[in-house]
Specification:
The protein has 4 domains: 70 residues, 2-Layer Sandwich (Alpha-Beta Plaits), CATH 3.30.70.20; 276 residues, no CATH class; 63 residues, 3-methyladenine DNA Glycosylase II, Chain A, domain 3, CATH 1.10.15.40; 107 residues, 3-Layer(aba) Sandwich (Udp-n-acetylmuramoylalanyl-d-glutamate--2,6- Diaminopimelate Ligase, Chain: A, domain 1). 36% of the residues lie in helices and 13% in strands. The chain is built from 20 helices and 19 strands. α4 crosses α6, α13 packs across α14 and α18 runs parallel beside α19. It is elongated.
Amino acid sequence: MSFAGQDHRLSARWTVFNVEDRPAAPARHYSVDPEACIGCVICMKACPVKAIRVRRGLALIDEDICVDCGVCYRVCPQGAIAVATTPLKDIARFKHSVAIAHPALFSQFGYGVTPNQVLLALKRIGFSDVIDLSWVCEMSAVAIEDYLLSHPQVSPGISASCPVVLRLIAQRFPSLLPNVVPVLPSRLVAARTLKMRLARRQGWDPAETGAFMISTCPAKMIAPDDPVAMAQPYLDGVICFPDVYGPLLRELKDLKEDQTILKSSGCGLAWGASGGQAEAVRVAGHTLAVAGFNEVMGILEVLEAGRLTELRFVEARVCLDGSLGGPLAVENRYRAKSVMNRLARQHGTTSRVDRKRLRGMIDQGGFDWEYDIKPAPAKPLAEEPSEAIRRLRAIREMSQRLPMSECGVCGAPDCATFAEDVVQGRAQLQGCPFLEQQASEADADSERQIMTVNDLVEELGLSVAAGSQGLDREVSGGYASDLLSDVMAGAGPGAVWVTIQTHQNVVAVAVLKELGAVLLAGGRRPDEDTVAKADEEGVPILLSEQDAFTLAGKLFSLGLGT
């Protein structure tokens, strides 16, 4: 793809797109619009996995690192992070389009709208039929319980419902892969059941039947390259809440409940919020629910360390409050949670699933994965271990030269990451303003001409009264004062001291402060004992008929003190 006036061919791994030329099903679901991005580094600093860099004023997403958490989308003040979801009009691609309604959808319309009304409204906006995902969630809870009870060695089991959590485990915590409960996420169970059973029951051709998830999370657009998937995705698209909210709101105004679609109890509805899954599978033992990216990372680290083995199940979601806090939710998550809690209480907390009937579906593999999750670690620094070690040392050495100010001006989220980018050839060392300033100062120092006392004598036509053996001393500044205590406090090494004092204590101060020379102004002449002391110490004493003010100006014009 090309963009007028800009060259974005920086790396095949960086994802950018043109709004008018966006691929229908990209490998990742958050992309940068180059027309809107101003390179402000806010998304780069917020990305919890350091997958974003800023190059030439454009934010770039590294597909090898991105886990589709959506933090960049949330924080971008320019709206330059775009989400690759499915537009509502895409349902027309299929003769029969079926909506799979996530339980969180029911929390978006306030306290007076029932879940059944929302399901009926979905059929009115163009879907051939609707699947109540909360009912499938309720069945999934039974399948998870069954697995945990039959596999006591798995302690604790980890929910497979959040695709971002699965990517994190595959990338950073592969030792926890055996703990992931191999029960398909309910959205995939629903989509597969639709394509393999329900469509034929309706007399529909599965190839002409589209399964569309209505969700707050575009990361749930399952693709074959995800760490957990099926032989085929079955889902044909993910439609975000904002795309259906307006049409549903219009239909809900005068909708009559002439049909009951909702089957689930509050147990299934609660899956829309954090804690719903953990509460639903409590029969298996102690459970825990954690939400939020940093919180999930913390729990995974604890689990990897072999702790919390008393737990039987961990529900982990990167969005605060679960799907209610997804990046594409419409309603404020706190109000949505209040609505969801009310709906769950209204429909009761006792599951309505016929466990005996469900046993047949479990035994037939209705909830089984079609292949296992595979580790997907980040690429090593180098293929050869010796080269990887060499590069790691180079990164550490370079990091020690950096200020660790984490300013982001270099286009990397922090100094350590910048050092790695430079060693790996993804960035130039000149990109760090701190190092650039150091280099400029070093160049300036190397170009600065060294001035000696003898040079000063020749430039200003001075006379040498004593200490001629010190004429090759370097002069680095100047100081004008007749108060010895002031000179002792303020004069620096190598300075020329302009004064009218002529006694031998002047030499003592010059030796103590390592001054370059003493310049007597106004035609003053040193005492005999001063001359003797200066010759002994090698301190040049210079003479001039001009006053101290004039001499100070001439010293400054020669570059001393600048």
